[in-house]
Amino acid sequence: MSLRYALLGLLADEAGSGYELTKKFERSLDRYAWHAKHNQVYQELNRLAADGLAEVVEEGARGRKTYAITEAGRADLRQWLLNPPRNPVVRNEFVLRLFLLFALDPKEARVVLAEYAAAVQRDLDALTALVESADVDPADGVLPDPLAFGHLAAGFGLHMLPASRDWAHWAIAQIDNWTEEGEEKSEAEDGARGA
Amino acid sequence: MSLRYALLGLLADEAGSGYELTKKFERSLDRYAWHAKHNQVYQELNRLAADGLAEVVEEGARGRKTYAITEAGRADLRQWLLNPPRNPVVRNEFVLRLFLLFALDPKEARVVLAEYAAAVQRDLDALTALVESADVDPADGVLPDPLAFGHLAAGFGLHMLPASRDWAHWAIAQIDNWTEEGEEKSEAEDGARGA
DNA sequence: AGAAGCATGTAATGAGTTACATGATTTG
DNA sequence: CAAATCATGTAACTCATTACATGCTTCT
């Protein structure tokens, strides 16, 4: 049911067509919260309309339909937000890969971790630039609504990305520390190799 | 295919029966990395055996079968670890809910965030206790293998949980700051209420 | 002997992916 | 007018969940 609520959430922010919602999904939810493809979005929008949680408010060129959330939809979304499922589904291929690194030898694991840290840093730089470009000076009294869609999510990224980068660096240090212990000798035989 | 690699990873750590692997899955991967139910585990083990990536090495009481990873399985796992899928799947009902909080009014969102922060803190306390009880003094020279299964994962939790707790507190502060701006008056009318 | 938990599975359904299909509009 | 991108969908398949089913072993 999560896809359903993800879409209701996007619709609660503003009405949109399947195409627009798919794009918004990719920009806002796809990376950290929920993943879905365009055809799944279209199908779920049909179901939401059939169940009275959303409705078509406009039909445009080449079959374009704009959906809006209904009162029933808002109520349903609100209930879901207030009553969390007790065993939320978590699937993360990134993290899975990182957790299974022990199956590689230390050198290989080190490379994977370094690449991961670099990718996270790139994401963080991009997000920082995005936030700065959109920011309102907090000193001028006209604070942006902190619940505005995207604001909490951006803050989430700004908190979590440095933590996962730091974890990767910590893991690399653990490995380096340990391999030195085990084989003090092999220091010289192997020059630096960039990734 | 992620479930397949999750199981190969667990088997790379040590051989086990479907039941044992299910339990290990729940303890180690379920919360942050990948989620699966027992029947899916059994089915995937059958497929792994059919594909020659795992093999039954022991049959015990009441149909119990112990599986071990094969060389082909190790090679397959290694390839997956070294060649990440470019668009890893991420699904997280927790995060989804948090991203959609804007659909609640500030007071309700605040409560959800406070409960979330408290739950994260409980997880962190439990993990800290677990790590301390299992820890070897790093000063005595006998460092544990940093790639030992669970070590990297535990470190991940120790890095990420504080960050997500801090994010929740930041989000609450944002909301408080903003609602004060908007309605300086309502300060007195509402006493403290514990969650 | 009965209850709790061990241990493995099947069947039906629902959610998600991949591949395919189609046509309109905008941009160069 | 050709290419890119907008825009929506269907069909077949695989992955995942829910509900059901079965029998063993250990503990009380």
TrEMBL record, chains A, B:
Domain of life: Bacteria
Domain Transcription regulator PadR N-terminal: 7-78
Gene3D superfamilies (alphabetical): Winged helix-like DNA-binding domain superfamily/Winged helix DNA-binding domain (1.10.10.10)
Domain Transcription regulator PadR C-terminal span(s) in chain numbering: 90-175
Pfam assignment, any one: PadR
Protein name per UniProt: PadR family transcriptional regulator
